[in-house]
């Protein structure tokens, strides 16, 4: 398969994947409503809806890994993304630490909207039940949320530094003085693989820290952000093209 074909196929996959993500969002919302309105607090639908989104994340990771092996330069160019999306990219995709900001933001918004119930002692089970102290003391697999965030920041910085070093060395490619182009491209692919692995591990790690309803709340926010940025960016590109 040629590089052009690999990129074209991934572009089609990306479009289909976004539509599946939107469809999964409706399942998540439906499962949330069912859980909240159920007198028995059933979680089966909620768990299934969450797992559906997580499997989409794993599927995307596998497809991205395959196309990166074929054409890492094409992956970084990201022709399937809007100009807005590309402006937000970090090493070929979203920045992993964004997820922690999303959790903190969503928990704060929900906390503020349900402050009266919380003060009365009612527990909702969603992200509004998470407080800063819980983020520090809640343990899952021997780690706190803050520890997971610190680990992610540290790894993000290491990958950023590695990419910076690769870019510094790239001057030899521009000057035509490098004889190991293939080796340098393979190194770039390894950097992108590290970034993609961190993205997947981070979303899995965050989800594992939450209760079933909190998982759904978080993934709804994450999917809305992902599809929202994609939609805004695409609409902006269309308007810009129409004005030309």
TrEMBL record:
Superkingdom of the organism of origin: Eukaryota
A Pfam family hit: DOG1
InterPro entries from the UniProt entry: Seed_Dev/Stress_Resp_Reg (IPR051886), TGA_domain (IPR025422)
Domain DOG1 residue range list: 7-239
Name recorded for this polypeptide: Protein DELAY OF GERMINATION 1
Species of the source: Cardamine amara subsp. amara
């Amino acid at each position: 398969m040629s590089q052009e074909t690999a990129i074209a196929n991934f572009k089609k996959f990306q479009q289909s994947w976004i539509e599946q993500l939107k469809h999964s969002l409706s399942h998540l919302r439906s499962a949330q409503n069912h859980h909240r309105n159920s007198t028995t607090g059933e979680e089966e639908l909620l768990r299934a809806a969450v797992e559906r989104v997580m499997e989409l994340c794993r599927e995307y990771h596998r497809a991205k890994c395959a196309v990166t092996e074929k054409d890492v330069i094409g992956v970084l160019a990201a022709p399937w993304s809007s100009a807005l999306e590309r402006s937000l990219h970090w090493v070929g995709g979203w920045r992993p630490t964004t997820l922690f900001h999303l959790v903190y933001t969503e928990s704060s918004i929900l906390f503020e909207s349900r402050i009266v119930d919380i003060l009365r002692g009612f527990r909702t089970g969603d992200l509004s039940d998470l407080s800063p102290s819980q983020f520090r003391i809640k343990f899952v697999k021997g780690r706190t949320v803050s520890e997971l965030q610190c680990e992610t920041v540290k790894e993000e910085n290491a990958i950023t530094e590695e990419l910076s070093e690769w870019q510094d060395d790239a001057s030899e490619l521009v000057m035509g003085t490098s004889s190991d182009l293939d080796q340098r491209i393979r190194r770039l692919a390894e950097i992108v693989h590290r970034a993609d692995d961190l993205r997947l591990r981070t979303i899995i790690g965050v989800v594992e820290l939450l209760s079933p309803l909190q998982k759904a709340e978080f993934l709804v926010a994450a999917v809305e952000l992902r599809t929202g940025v994609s939609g805004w960016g695409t609409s902006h590109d269309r308007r810009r093209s129409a004005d030309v």
